[in-house]
Each structure stands twice: as C-alpha cells, then as structure tokens.
Amino acid sequence: MSMYEKPVRLLMRDMVESLLTQPSQVISKDQVLKWFVESYPKIKPGTISAHLIRFSTNAPSRLHYDARPGEEDLLFQIDGSHFRRYDPANDPAPIHESSQVSVKHNAPVEDEEEVEGPSEFAYESDLRDFLAKNLTILERGLRLYEEEGITGVEFPVGGRFIDILAITPEGNYVVIELKVSRGYDRVVGQILRYMAWIAKNQAEPTQRVRGIIVAREITADLSLACSGLPNVQLFEYQLSVSLKKISI
Hints:
It contains 6 helices and 11 strands. It is an alpha+beta fold. It folds into 2 domains: 8-100; 108-236, Trna Endonuclease, Chain: A, domain 1 (3-Layer(aba) Sandwich). It is globular.
C-alpha cells in the first residue's frame, strides 16, 4: 500500500521532471533525498535509493526490482551518487535481463583468504539467490523485505549493498551477509555498519535490527569477534546432491 496518492515509482517520475529540466543536467542522490524530504517525508531513504537504482538503465542491481521497460528507463547512473536522464540515442540499452550484465559484475569473489572448493557456491550471488527464496532455512517465519516493488536482495545502504534484508514475523529487520567460503572477523565491521544504517534510515523506533552472517566456514577469529555481540548470529552452510535414475 502506498503512503501517498501515488506509489513511489510514479513519484520518481515527478522528481525527474522537477529536477532534471535540461538534457545533460546531472543531479546527486542528496538532491533527490532532499526533494523527497520536502515533498514526501514519510518515504524512507533506503526506499528512495532503491528506486534510483530501479530507474537507472545501467545499474545491474535493477534486475532485482523488476524495472518496467520504457516506463522506468529514465535515468543513467554516472557513479554511486550522481545521475542524469537516460539518452536512448547514445547510451547502452537498458538492463532488463541477466544476460546484459557483464561477466565482470558476476565474477567470483576475489580474496586471497577465500579460495573456493568444489563443494562451495561458485558465486556469492548463487548463495544469495538461493537463500532469498528459502529464508525459513535460517529462521522460521523469516521473509524477504518487499515494499512497492523493491526487494531486500542487494538492498542499497549508503553506497553499498546488503546481500539480503529480511523481516521477522514481528516486523523486525534482519541484515544477512554472505561469504561463499570462509567468514573472517573483518565482516563484523561490515555487518554492524549495515545494521546501523538500517536502524537509522529505514527502521521505525519500535523495530529492532539484528544480523546474520552465513559462510561455508566460520573461522575462529569471526566466532571470537561475535561472541560479545548478542544481536549477530553465525551460520555455516552445507551442500548436498542427490541423484535420481531416469528410465529410458
């Protein structure tokens, strides 16, 4: 249900018409946030940031938001904080299918300390997409965050992205960070930053925020780092394969 007469996707069109009056004009995310604060203050910063990606023709993450061809192909993302109008005559075709995303964007995580084995997900995105559809594996009643066409997959938080943002049956937020191989203690700072952003910019005062880290192997240093954090849980994933013989 929309907070105002128009859903956010239509308000985004109004914003574009209001702020981008010249073909080559560039606007910042801060300008967009200010426009919404002055005109529609109930809409959360995370929702606005996600819609900016949804409307940006060259943003790979828009695939998670089901951007409508033509209708929502309005912006071109210059960098993480600046946008201009999409120019169909000179800009690349809008991204609407995964085949349009470069291999580089989907490349395996490059980390000297994370060497993948045969029993691990090839890409972090594979683990993310699987868990996004099976969140009850982690916790009963857990569901993917969804609001006005925006999902919790790659949810934008201050120029970065949460792997999965979920909601409990009580309406509290759960930030989920994934590591395809080993989880090291440096991920603690990352997830705490994301949790703080959600608490400040997305959650209501009555909503709590906690975190979950999922990795192929939880290292001793990560376990130690989280031992004093009651609002962060650790999970290791395991894969199994079964075969079914087909009669010919």
